[in-house]
Amino acid sequence: MCVNLSMDILTFPFWILILRISHLVLTRMNSDIGLELANIYDILLLVLITGGYTGVGFELKSAEIFNLVKNTSCSLAQLPQGRSPHSQDGGLVCGGGGYNAATQKTCVKWSPASGTWTQSHTLRHPREDHVSWATASGVYLIGGQYSPRTSEKVKLDGSVEEGFGLRNDTK
């Protein structure tokens, strides 16, 4: 484990999230990790990478933080289930999971305090190959293979509400 306690995730609409660290506490596992921050610019160069795919039914559970400046990474605890093709936005990892229907309808969130991933939301529609868009009030999940003309909003209070309809299929 390379990150300890006070980390929260900034809302960037990227598949890979860039982390914002408010009150940073990093634990050095060894001298090769090199995640000591020299200045504020280093903070914006940490990337959270989750899940992936190695073949049908082989979605990855991996999670790691990569330091773009030092070209080093360190592992976080694994995701509860493999995720791919999923979205990652606003601190949530949502959907994906290949043929796993339960994973397609859930989001998980990293808890720096416990060092674990926990399920945070149950979605209204299965999501895979979808996109996400973070707003100040929550994250929109849009389209995808199993729900090509739907969207839903995953709200900060833990609820999920129907979003807007889409005119055309997204997958």
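The record above closes out task 2.4. Task 2.5 opens with a second protein, given below.
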Amino acid sequence: MSDLRFRAVETDRLIVRPFVDTDAEARFALMREAFGMDWPPERLARWHQWTLSSYESFGAMWQPPYGDYAVARKTTGELVGAVGIVPAVVPWAVLDRPTPENTFVSPEFGLFWAMFRAHRGQGYATEGLRWLVGRCEDAGVSELWAAVHPDNLPAQRVRVVRADGGFVFDN
């Protein structure tokens, strides 16, 4: 592996890939629908450009590939959602405070997913996350976390199995 950049991959039904310029409007629509994100267009555009730049920057500097990735149907290319990894320090407080005996800490990773309502309940989040979890394991990530709001019943149905047979997220 030359760096930590995530490349596009095809699953049985999906293509999981970095977002590109032409995904901006669909990505904004997904964030509005899934999270009620009502940022002004200029802020959304800056966020999208930062995401695109971060894929190269994080990878080239051997930093964790935080961010979200497009999930599209293989047959049509239609964006159905997003999966990603985020820093998972809060609310879990999983990093030990550095001490003279423990000067090296590793980041913990939180899983992120959002699917358009029209595409929920079809296993797309699980399929996309399965790829992402595998890629994280390949890169040496030892801990993955997922937290779901108690009222978010569709997200609670997502199940991702690690290579060792354990669940990343299980209610």
